Amino acid sequence: MNPISPATGTRDDEIAHYIAAVEDSLSDLPPHIRGELIGDLVDHLTEIAGETTTAVPLAARLGPPEGYAAELRATLPARTAVPMPHPLPHQGFAPARTASMDWADAVDRADLALGGFAGYPRFSELCRALRPGWWALRGALLVQFPLSYFLLGGGGHVVLYSSIALLPLGLLYAAGALASIRLGRMRGPNAASINVLAGIAALGGVLVLVGSRFSYLF
Amino acid sequence: MRSSLSPVDRTQLLKGVLDIAVLAVLKEEDGYGYDILRRLRQAGFHDVGDASVYGTLRRLFQGGHLVTYVVPSDSGPHRKYYSLNYSGRVQLDLAAKTWTDFADTMSSLLSPGPAKPRKET
Q1: Bridge partners of B79?
Q2: pLDDT digits (tens, 9 = 90+) for A9-48
Q3: Interatomic CA distance for residues A48 and A59, integer angstroms
Q4: Angle between the N-to-C axes of helices A123-146 and A166-184, in degrees from 0 to 180, rounded to the nearest 10
Q5: What 3-state DSSP class applies to B120?
Q6: For residue B70, what is the nearest residue in chain A, using CA coordinates?
Q7: CB A47 to CB B71 under 8 A?
């Protein structure tokens, strides 16, 4: 059997020795099962070792490697000789179900990847964090459209840059933004539909304004 | 007299529900190995061991129920976070229903008084 945690070794040596002893205790298992069990153990034990600044030996924190191996072995499914079942397509599930699961998993991965790129655990979390900003913008846009299109004679004047009555206009935009935030935080059976409609109206208004402003191009 | 529920029995019970417990912890929030162990212990599974949690995470990951991502840490090694995917959420919903049904049956058996017939669903 391998020596465990030599007093003079580095933390990496200690981890390597501990894993070697765990592997030794699992040597009766088929190599692919053993590989599945300990494949990630270096990273895991490094993570565990990094949890404290004091140099507590691994065996003191986790118990002897033989015990760790026994506990690990107990997590195997009853039929240890066969590989673990995989619920995805190549193992023979119904195509419709696996297709939807593949799609959902792809969305999950994209969610994680895009989120990681933006510095968030998930992209959906970033979107949730940005929602109040979008609600405020939506409210301002919903105020912008009627002001610009109806009160100032159409033609898509951009009221935001108008010098006329800046204070009342600012107040109107703020009121629109606040009302839209309130709408965004509304709960109830119709809240989602109303919010979607308000979003479509705001974006539709922008398109109408932009279209009428640049109509001379067409 | 010895307790009717020996530590071995408790270990067996824990083994049976650890998958559900780990999935439930991850439904709440993504986590890395040691963090999941800590949250399980805080929830009341004081005797759960690191190897049990690590092995369960490996098995759930290889079963296609979890995805992982690595987060750099300023104070130590990078941490591998586990997160439920669609399959994991489905698995948890199914397991939660099974567990509720099982626990109701056991509670009904263990409660004093005549056994009440259970409504079939």
Answers
A1: B71
A2: 687 888 999 999 999 999 998 888 888 888 889 989 988 8
A3: 12
A4: 140
A5: coil
A6: A116
A7: no
